[in-house]
Design goal:
The protein is α/β, with parallel strands linked by helices. It is 42% helix and 16% strand. Helix 2 links the parallel strand 1 and strand 2. Helix 14 crosses helix 15. The termini are far apart.
C-alpha cells in the first residue's frame, strides 16, 4: 500500500510538472540555410546581402515576431564556388532545414535538380529568368535581370531623339552576366526599335579605354551593364577620363550608361565617385536616399545591429533583408493556420502569396506575389539616376512591356 501511494504521488508530480512546463520549453526552432559569396567574386554584393539576412532573422527572434519560436539560419561563405555551394546545401539538408536561400546564378542552375528532388523551396539572390525554367521550387525575389535590361532598353528607345539608338551590353563573364542578353535580343526581334551593336564580357583588364573608343567609333551612345559594381565603376572612371560620359541623356558623341540591379546603388557611387553622375539604374528595391517607411526600417535595423553606414545604405543589404522577410512571412502564415512549419507547407504558402494575400515588405517598390504559375516576386521596377552624387528615382514604378511579348 505504501508503495502504491508513492507511485501515485510520483505520477501526480509528473502531471503537475507537464502542466506547469515553461512556455519556452515548448518553443520550436525553424532551421534555414544560406550559402553565398561573402568573400571572392561578387562579394561586394554578397557581403551586405548576408548582413541583411542575418540582421533581419535576429530581429525576428529578438522581438519575438514568431512568439517563442525562433529562426536559426546558418550562413556559409561559398566564395562564388559551385562545388562549395553544393556541399553547403547538402550539409544544410542534414541539419533539417525547411527553407533555403541560395545566391549565385551558376549554383542555382547547378542545384536545380537537387531542389526538385528534395522538394525544397528556394529563394536565390540571382534574378536570372532561366532559374525558373523546368523548376517548381525556385522563387525569384524580384523582376528578372531580363526584365530589368528590357526595361532599361525601353527607356532608351522612348527617350532617344533621332533615329535608331545603338546600344552595347557590358556583362559579367558568367551565366549571371549572360542571362539577359538573349532575352533582350528577342525583344529587339519582337519590335523594340534599337540596335545591339556589341556584347562585351569584361575581364580582369582594368583599363577599358580601347573598348570605349571602339564603341564610340561604332556610333554606340548607350551601354547597358549586367554585372556587379566594381567593373562598372572602373568603366565609368575610364569613360570620365576620356570625356565620354554623356551629361544629358543620349548626348551625341558621348555614352549614356545604364545598369541592372547589381551594378548600381550607393556602393557604385562610393566606388566611382563623380564619374557615377548621370548613371541610370533599375531595380525593384527602394533606396535609402529617399524617405519611406521601408528606408526607415532598413536604417533602423542596421543601426540596431551596429552595421556601418556603407552596409546600412546598401540596396544589397535591403535585398538580403527582403528575402528574410519573405521567409519569415510564410512561416508566420503557416503558424497562423495551425499548420506545421515544414518545407511542404512553406511551399504552399509561397504559392498562395497573391491577390489579397500579396506581401508588401516595404523594402521593395511593389508587392511580392507568387502563384503556381508565377514564381517571379516583385514585378515592378523603379528607374533611378545619380544626381548630385546620390541615386534619385525618376518616374514611377513600371513593368516592362516587352517581357510579355517574348
Amino acid at each position: 500500500m505504501k508503495m502504491n501511494r508513492v507511485t501515485s504521488w510520483m505520477f501526480l508530480l509528473a502531471a503537475v510538472s507537464m502542466v506547469t512546463l515553461p512556455v519556452h520549453a515548448l518553443a520550436k526552432e525553424y532551421k534555414l540555410g544560406l550559402s553565398l559569396a561573402i568573400t571572392g567574386p561578387t562579394s561586394d554584393a554578397g557581403n551586405p546581402y548576408s548582413k541583411g539576412v542575418e540582421d533581419y532573422f535576429q530581429f525576428v527572434n529578438d522581438t519575438k515576431m514568431l512568439g517563442e519560436d525562433t529562426i536559426n539560419c546558418t550562413i556559409r561563405d561559398d566564395q562564388y564556388n559551385n562545388d562549395i555551394t553544393k556541399r553547403n546545401f547538402e550539409d544544410f539538408l542534414d541539419q533539417g532545414i525547411v527553407f533555403y536561400l541560395n545566391y549565385s546564378t551558376g549554383s542555382t542552375l547547378a542545384l536545380k535538380k537537387d531542389f526538385e528532388e528534395e522538394k525544397m523551396p528556394v529563394i536565390p539572390a540571382s534574378f536570372h529568368a532561366g532559374n525558373l525554367v523546368d523548376s517548381n521550387y525556385i522563387f525569384l525575389p524580384i523582376a528578372s535581370y531580363s526584365a530589368q535590361a528590357i526595361g532599361l532598353a525601353e527607356y532608351v528607345v522612348k527617350n532617344h531623339k533621332e533615329g535608331t539608338p545603338k546600344v552595347a551590353m557590358f556583362i559579367h563573364p558568367s551565366a549571371f552576366g549572360r542571362g539577359p542578353v538573349e532575352d533582350l535580343q528577342k525583344a529587339v526581334g519582337a519590335g523594340l526599335k534599337m540596335e545591339i551593336v556589341e556584347v562585351v564580357e569584361h575581364g580582369k583588364d582594368l583599363d577599358n579605354t580601347a573598348m570605349l573608343q571602339r564603341l564610340v567609333s561604332k556610333g554606340v551612345q548607350y551601354v547597358i551593364s549586367q554585372t556587379v559594381q566594381s567593373p562598372v565603376a572602373t568603366m565609368l572612371k575610364d569613360a570620365s577620363s576620356l570625356g565620354l560620359v554623356a551629361k544629358s541623356f543620349g548626348e551625341a558623341g558621348k555614352i549614356t550608361f545604364l545598369g541592372c540591379h547589381y551594378t548600381g546603388g550607393n556602393d557604385l557611387v562610393a566606388l566611382a565617385g563623380p564619374a557615377a553622375e548621370s548613371f541610370y539604374w533599375t531595380t525593384s528595391y527602394i533606396v535609402t536616399n529617399e524617405p519611406s517607411p521601408g528606408a526607415t526600417a532598413q536604417l533602423d535595423l542596421a543601426k540596431k545591429y551596429n552595421r556601418d553606414e556603407k552596409a546600412a545604405n546598401s540596396h544589397n543589404y535591403a535585398n538580403g533583408m527582403m528575402v528574410a522577410q519573405v521567409a519569415t512571412e510564410v512561416i508566420k502564415r503557416c503558424k497562423a493556420k495551425g499548420k506545421e512549419v515544414t518545407k511542404e507547407n512553406l511551399y504552399e504558402e509561397l504559392q498562395a502569396m497573391n491577390g489579397d494575400k500579396a506581401f508588401s515588405p516595404g523594402t521593395t517598390v511593389g508587392p511580392v506575389t507568387y502563384s503556381k504559375t508565377d514564381h517571379a516576386g516583385v514585378d515592378s521596377l523603379q528607374l533611378y539616376i545619380v544626381k548630385g552624387g546620390v541615386f534619385k528615382s525618376t518616374g514611377t514604378p513600371f513593368v516592362p512591356e516587352y517581357t510579355k511579348k517574348i
